Amino acid sequence: MSQRNRRLSVAQEIELIHQFEEENLSFPEVVSLVGRLVELGWAWRMPPLYQVLAHRYIEYGYFDPREYEEPVMRSKIKIVVNDGKITRIIAEEGETDVVVQEEGGDTTARFTASPSRSVAEND
């Protein structure tokens, strides 16, 4: 698709995303936008609607799946330690359940970490 191959500025791409979310794009423009997001690897980091469209358009043959590789998303967490004790666990994206366990098998603490909070719930 020629429009998809045409390079847009970041500002133009963001404007297209806004137009898409306001339902102001034609079908070819939506396909072009999703193709560009897939090409950049952004589609997999966007809200679920974009991911679903990307998968569907690849499935329907609009894009060659060999040209686009969906990155493997890994959760990233930060463990904050003070005097050898875990004081906080912070997740970069989404909620992450963390269990701290002694090597012998006893659970010492359970955490649910998210970007906005982390809470230690001692057993």
Could you characterize the architecture of this molecule?
The protein has 123 residues and is of the alpha+beta class. It has two domains: 2-67, no CATH class; 77-122, no CATH class. It has four helices and five strands; from the N terminus they run H-H-H-H-E-E-E-E-E. The chain has helices at 2-5, 10-21, 27-40, 48-59; strands at residues 77-82, 85-91, 96-101, 107-113, 118-122. The strands form two sheets. It has a three-stranded antiparallel sheet with strand order 3-4-5, with no helix packed on it. A two-stranded antiparallel sheet has the order 1-2. The longest helix has 14 residues, at 27-40. Mean pLDDT is 76; it is low at 1-5.
